[in-house]
Amino acid sequence: MIPLATIEKTAETLMEKAAIEIPEDYLGGLRRCADTEKGDLSSFVIQAMLENYEAAKEDRRAMCGDTGVPRWYVKYGNDARPESGPIGVESALRRATANATQSIPLRPNRVHPLWRTDHDNNVGINAPEIEYAFHPDADWIDLTTVHKGGLFGSDYRMLFPGDGMQGIRRFFLDTLVAFGKRGLACQPAIVGVGLGGSKDACMVLGKQASCLRTVGSRNPDPKIAELEDEFKELGNSIGMGAMGFMGSSMVVDCNIEVGYCHTGGMPMSVHMFCLSSRRATARIHGDGRVEYRTDPDWFTDYSRRATVEWHTPVPMAAE
User: Fold this and answer.
1) How far apart are CA 140 and CA 81, in angstroms?
2) Which residues span the domain enclosing 70?
3) What class of enzyme is it (predicted)?
4) pLDDT score of 58
5) For residue 280, what are the contacts with CB-CB under 8 A and spacing of at least 6?
6) Which residues in 13-36 are b (16+ Cβ under 10 Å) and which e?
7) DSSP string, 187-227
8) DSSP state letters, 136-161
């Protein structure tokens, strides 16, 4: 039995880590951008960002004044047994969000869409969002928090099979150019692309690809992996760098996730994570042990399974 007190305490720690400590995979990608960026203003901004991250970690302060809209991704091992069940876990995550908003502090960004009611704690109707996934043969629970900017950096288009790869490339470039020219994203950033699924699933896939995949990871389908590399290069060829200044470092990396879709359509979504890439993960084991990391490991062979049944791979015998 996993105690609720452990879940709530771990969740509060994750909120602090996400707000303050930039994941090393993203930092590495940003440093590579700094090494290759030729635009003067863009180079200056990237260096300032790197210095800001170090200051935030040293002072234990959120690295950006706008701490976005905190959300949760929960992956249950099939044999996990949290105290009070899933309802208890949800309650713990909502309490942790409210407590962390005051203690870190985070900017209380959540308001009612019509009445603008603000509880000053980032908790309200359907807030924070909590998404779920599952994993076989495990007794742990993975908690991941993501603090993503809540206003811009997302777009969707219903493409059709006849649009082909050229249509996919065109929408990708159209979206990034629009983001850059209109100030709709904070770059350099991790770009996520969702291909396929239903309309709503397509948006979810793209956001998860941007927020829950690490820099340098690649889709296990080699053709999709090639497309990820191509899109990263394309995104950095449009003449935009850090925060919209002229340059060549709009995209730290590009991640693509797919889902089977209606035979007559080809939905596509494009999302840009914040330049802060605020995420943090912890695994709470069945015995109460907690392990922290920055790779959510959200996409697995199990989550990407394409068959009706899932068969746990049999380990190869040692030769």
Assistant:
1) 8
2) 4-18+63-148+279-293
3) lyase
4) 93
5) 14, 15, 17, 18, 21, 23, 144, 145, 292, 294
6) bbbbbbbbbbbebbbebbebbbee
7) SSEEEEEEEES-HHHHHHHHHHHHHHS-TT---SSHHHHHH
8) SS---EEEEEEEE-SSSSEEEEEE-G
- In-domain check, residue 31: no
pTM of the predicted model over 0.90: yes
Peptide bond into 128 cis (omega under 30): yes
Place of tokens 């896939």: 205
The pLDDT, as a whole number, for residue 132 is 98
Query: Between helices 24-36 and 40-59, what is the axis angle to 10°?
Result: 150
The pLDDT of residue 315 is 61
Tokens 């949760």: give the residue.
72
Model pLDDT for residues 263-277, shown as the tens digit of each residue? 999 999 999 998 888
Tokens of 289: 């042990």
Tokens of 27: 């930092």
For residue 224, the model assigns a pLDDT of: 98
* Same domain membership, residue 285 and residue 218: no
